[in-house]
Amino acid sequence: xxxxxxxxxxxxxxxxxxxxxxxLRKYISNGEWLGRRGKDVVSIPVPQIxxxxxxxxxxxxxxxxxxxxxxxxxxxxxxxxxDGQGKAGSDPGEHVLEVEVSIQELAAILGExxxxxxIEPRGKERLIxxxxxxxxxxxxxxESLRHFKRTFRQALRRQxxxxxxxxxxxxxxxxxxxxxxRSWRTTPLPQxxxxxxxxxxxxxxxxxxxxxxxxxxxFWIDTWLRSQYDGLESRYIVHDATARAVDRDTFFxxxxxxxxxxxxxxxxxxxxxxxxxxxxxWNIYPFQFSxxxxxxxxxxxxxxxxxxxxxxxxxxLFCYGQVESPYGSGQFITDLxxxxxxxxxxxxxxxxxxxxxxxxxxxxxxxxx
Amino acid sequence: xxxxxxxxxxxLFVIQRAIEEHARGYGLDFWETSFExxxxxxxxxxxxxxxxxxxxxxxxxxxxxxxxxKSHIYGLSQIYEMVINNxxxxxxxxxxxxxxxxxxxxxxxxxxxxxxxxxxxxxxTSRRMIDSMANHATRVRRHIERQGxxxxxxxxxxxxxxxxxxxxxSPFIVRHETPAPVDTEPPPVEVPRLRAKSYMDKFINPPxxxxxxxxxxxxxREKPKRNPPEPERDVLLFLLQQAPLETWERDILxxxxxxxxxxxxxxxxxxxxxxxxxYWHSRLMTEKILDAxxxxxxxxxxxxxxxxxxxxxNPYKVGITLLRYVxxxxxxxxxxxxxxxxxxxxxxxxxxxxxGLGRQKIFEVRKLYNDLTFIDEFFTEDFCYxxxxxxxxxxxxxxxxxxxxxxxxxxxxxLLYQLTNFGEPFxxxxxxxxxxxxxxxLRHRHEGADLQIDHARATMEALYRIWRRPVCVMTDVESKSxxxxxxxxxxxxxxx
Lengths: 369, 496
What we know:
The complex is a heterodimer of chains A (369) and B (496).
Chain A (H helix, E strand, L loop, with lengths): L5 H11 L11 E10 L2 E10 L13 E4 L7 E4 L18 E3 L4 H11 L10 H4 E11 L9 H15 L18 E10 L3 E8 L6 H21 L3 E8 L3 E4 L1 H6 L8 H15 L6 E8 L6 H15 L6 E6 L8 H8 L6 E6 L5 H9 L4
Parallel strand pairs in A: 2-5, 8-9, 8-11, 11-12, 12-13
Antiparallel strand pairs in A: 1-2, 6-7, 9-10
Chain B lengths: L9 H16 L7 E6 L1 H9 L10 H15 L8 E3 L4 E6 L4 H20 L10 H19 L1 H12 L37 H7 L2 H16 L12 H8 L4 H22 L1 H20 L5 H11 L9 H17 L4 H6 L3 H5 L8 H11 L2 H8 L2 H6 L2 E6 L5 E6 L2 H12 L6 E9 L4 E7 L7 H15 L3 E7 L2 E7 L4 E5 L1
Parallel strand pairs in B: 1-3, 7-8
Antiparallel strand pairs in B: 2-3, 4-5, 6-7, 8-9, 9-10
Helix pairs in contact in B: 1-4, 1-11, 2-3, 4-11, 5-6, 5-10, 6-10, 11-13, 13-16, 17-19
């Protein structure tokens, strides 16, 4: 139902998302309410814009209340957003989940905010499938699709109108005109086969913070691509001096501490494409994250070779994100850029901190390849 | 009519008429009231619009809606009743509420409408506000069409920073009596002389000195009058009259000001108004309307409305208990000199002169009082202790709110402090030509609490956008007089 307030509501949301009226940004506060959904305690973000006014400082000066208690009894934290600092207690910790929007909505927001163009499915003919959905009711159709409830309702209506319905002896007999059938609409659905191959460097130099960045970035990329493609696959590769394919869970949790040979991962990736994902049928998106500290120049040059020969010709896009690390030289990105100056399908990005993740995703996916 | 009202279903309409009949029997005096049933979404929309079906386009209403719908979805709160101060009054019922809830809301709403109609503080508000709001919306839309959304909305934002700079009492005061135009020459300046014997006069009142004084006084008299002549608390009015605004800007500022004045009495009478309505819904429900089978549900919901969690100040509860307390005192004759001077506990406890003046007294209270005067007059020591009031404050070391006192004086002071001027600072225009440079000088009447400086500065920037000349605010910071100034590019701050 359309409401009169919708334009104002949308405008408010646009302001909060930072799309319009940047001058109000400084007045936005991100409040939080705790609510319940089933058994879970959920945190409900309530962004608020508070216009400045002449008012008193020390907002926490208290007030007047009513009820039992001695002088000195606590009534709870003055500022609910400030708590959680080293409070010990005997209650079990409650699990707080963030709620707000579904993944689909998030992907839409991401699409708007990062201005990502839609990724075109490759090879159109093969990738279109048709999907039938039951969307309505019509008067003719096969008996197997007869809608019993609607049919009988129609019959009942007719009988009441004609006055031959007796509530004492409720008998409803549909005639041919009463019959209602489900009807469907056929919609073409771009059925595209895409695979994301996430490669992460888990050598000793990648700390928790670096992995956190990789985790967030991969999550968003994953979300975005899933919103664009039906039937999306993902594969995960971790490597130190050797590479191995792992499942999603391991990918995000694992911590190893060996040296770094990026070529091992590239070889595994190439093999994976070769064995499982023929490029004629798959859109392939490798995303590599590393701190850019490769073991040796030799290994780097063999990386470039594998990349050039076995990977790039087959993939839609090759993305390399380099996470800033306190250790390591971060040389790899420089080498990569030097080797592929003219190659449009290679995108590199440096991610210094969490704030850069959005920029990096924009760099990766903004091309719409 | 801006908004078509769907008629109430017959079954509810009959109930409405019955409740009205009972209410009239008790002496309530209200306007014709139209109830409309809304589904929860429309209810939230109307609530976000402050009870009106239409308001001008602005994100702030969207924000309100966002909060209301979230708190509804997660079951944190729901809107029970809503009524507009308008003649005829408009009120809303939530679709799908049980019948007992609808009855309770109707009874409650009649209490509000009676209050709107009869309380003195509402006497100057527009009773056709539903139409005015719709007109405001049209006017703002027209400005948006001509000037562009971005521009108009930003100007509204600016005005909203200032919408508390009004004088809620001004509708009742004839402040500036325009003096009759004086045609006659004012009498020549008289220099006061010291008394002296005639032969000494030349020495005691030397003519040169007198001439000098005369000249000075003449100059003083010819000096331009101050603008404004006295400090003006209605800052918005002052700006409307004197700021260099474009026509559309003036129109918007006028709208913001008019709406601020319309809502001011509701903020001034929250406790009394809600208390009054709750008093009457519970009277009407328990004495007249309630069916025996509905009793438990009613009691349950009523308890929800009147609940006070520790540390919370529920205006419904405080209002109704204080009204009942007043009623009891006047019924039993617990007032006057004799009562005040009696300090025998037992005598006081059994004091009952059987005067039965309670009902009459609370009707008087609803006519003449606002929250501030209501609390000031009737919030007594006995009432404070009986109802376990306390004051609380933030404990700096733990960061928690803690009960800091149960002492009557402290509790009452804090309460009055919060109610005075809505707990907001007193600010008035002092001089429109400060330093003889056309700068705007405002003065904050400091009463113990400092202004929040970052907010004050941002507000001054908003004032500058309207005044278009530097803006100064005189205030106290940490007990020292300071002059804050914004000249359009930088904030300065100096001692005075």
